[in-house]
Design brief:
transcription; Arc Repressor Mutant, subunit A; DNA binding; 2 domains; GAF-like_dom_sf; DNA-binding transcription factor activity; IclR-ED domain-containing protein; alpha+beta
Length: 286
């Protein structure tokens, strides 16, 4: 795990404190990533001295961020408590959750709400409409999925486990929809920072191809992820804007073939309507 050095503009007296704090977070992240571990294991993974690792673990133990069982350190549920407080303080999530719930009552699949943080999009909320959900409404949309391909249910656990994690901004429908609302200079800066890593054979890895894709998204008003982030998963998404700036996005995902049918435009319309309703709530504070 890379720990960046103190910036040159930092006060000299502050640098040791900042470096120590960075090491503490390295230790905490390792405990979470590995779902627990002993001092030696965590020290090896972080390349920190055992004495330093032990000191930081004791600090985390004293503040309740880790617990100790049988000589092993594990992440505490206190982290979940703080995570929920953080999420409940994000206006896009607070104003958008109900609209996502409404969207998924009429469209089968997995609905996601992403929030823009800096130059990254993070998954804030996931809602699924299962295959056996009531489909009596005349307004309901469903698609015929190939029985040999993974179902929405097969992937739900994966999506829920990603809550709070960064969504690959160039390889997801929400991410690309957000990029399409930005200036070329801003997109170029984000690409310089994050690169264009490949996740599947369909991932866009060429900057020129990305800008061509963003032009298409602006023309039609929504983005499509056709197995670009994960194999067997396709997605339709649109951005949420506030004062002409992107703040997040909404998408609907389903198994491979989800975005190839004749219902794509209707699904996209419903996703766009959802983002429009969230924008109204953000503007008028409802």
């Amino acid at each position: 795990m890379f720990c960046p050095p103190p910036r040159p503009d930092m006060e000299t007296d502050d640098a040791p404190v900042i470096e120590s704090s960075q090491k503490l977070f390295q230790v905490l992240e390792q405990v979470i990533e590995k779902e627990g571990g002993g001092v030696t294991e965590i020290a090896d993974e972080t390349s920190l001295a055992k004495s330093t690792t032990h000191l930081h673990l004791q600090s985390l133990l004293a503040t309740g961020y880790v617990v100790k069982r049988d000589g092993q350190y594990y992440p505490s549920l206190q982290l979940f408590e703080w995570g929920e407080k953080v999420r409940n303080g994000i206006e896009v999530y607070v104003k958008g959750r109900g609209e996502v719930d409404e969207l998924i009552t009429n469209v089968r699949g997995v609905a996601k709400l992403g929030v823009l943080e800096g130059d990254s999009v993070r998954l804030a909320y996931v809602k699924e409409r299962a295959d056996d959900a009531t489909e009596s409404s005349a307004q309901s949309i469903s698609t015929e999925f190939n029985a040999d391909t993974p179902t929405v249910m097969d992937h739900t656990g994966e999506y829920r486990n990603l809550l709070g994690k960064e969504m690959n901004i160039h390889a997801t429908a929400i991410g690309k929809a957000v990029l399409a609302e930005m200036s070329r200079d801003t997109v170029e800066s984000i690409v310089d920072h994050h690169g264009l890593p490949q996740y599947t054979e369909n991932t866009i890895t060429d900057e020129s191809a990305l800008f061509d894709e963003l032009d298409r998204i602006r023309e039609r008003g929504y983005a499509i992820d056709s197995e670009e982030w994960a194999a067997d998963i396709s997605c339709i998404g649109a951005a949420i804007t506030r004062k002409d700036r992107p703040v997040g996005g909404v998408s609907i995902s389903g198994p491979n073939g989800y975005v190839d049918g004749n219902l794509v435009d209707e699904i996209a319309r419903r996703v766009i309507n959802t983002t429009n309703m969230i924008e109204v709530k953000l503007t008028h504070g409802r």
